[in-house]
Amino acid sequence: MSVRVPENNVQLKRAYEPPSPDDGARILVDRLWPRAISKEALALDDWMKDIAPSTELRRWFGHDPDRWHEFCRRYAAEIHDHQDLVEELRARARKGRITLVFSAHDEVHNDAVVLRNVILHDGTNRKAAKEQKK
């Protein structure tokens, strides 16, 4: 079993919040570029759009909180197909803080929340799913 990622090493931040030295590596995890924000303003270290939800899933979810639990289940299944990217994020988070940057207005019901739980819980989707229900 791999070394667990410290929880405080994976944080979430909206793309529209200013970057901070405390962010560590800033990684955009959305498939689409955030509206009305420049590359310089985002100050990203990476853009991992391939780990974002599929276009179909993103459109289906539409940030509707009533679809949240089903979105979590479907997105976790999609993430399963990108374990190489999850492992890359885990490795980076074991070395230091990473910030998953997202553009959704809802800071509770978005793909970065699901991805963070998958990173922290070594892919044990049962535990990640329990966290989502809280």
Strand order within the widest beta sheet: 1-4-2-3
SSE string: EEHEHHHEHH
Uncertain residue segments: 124-134
Shape: globular
Describe what this molecule looks like in 3D:
With 134 residues, this protein is an alpha/beta fold. The protein has one domain. The chain contains six helices and four strands; from the N terminus they run ββαβαααβαα. It has helices spanning 39-42, 55-61, 68-80, 83-95, 111-120, 125-133; strands spanning 10-14, 25-28, 46-47, 98-102. α1 links the parallel β2 (25-28) and β3 (46-47). Mean pLDDT is 91; it is low at 124-134.
Name its key features.
4 strands, 134 residues, four-stranded parallel beta sheet, globular, alpha/beta, single chain, 6 helices, disordered C terminus
What's the SSE blueprint?
Blueprint: E1 10-14, E2 25-28, H1 39-42, E3 46-47, H2 55-61, H3 68-80, H4 83-95, E4 98-102, H5 111-120, H6 125-133
Parallel strand pairs: 1-4, 2-3, 2-4
Helix pairs in contact: 3-5, 3-6, 4-5, 5-6
Question: Brief overview, please?
Answer:
The protein is 42% helix and 12% strand. The chain is α/β, with parallel strands linked by helices.
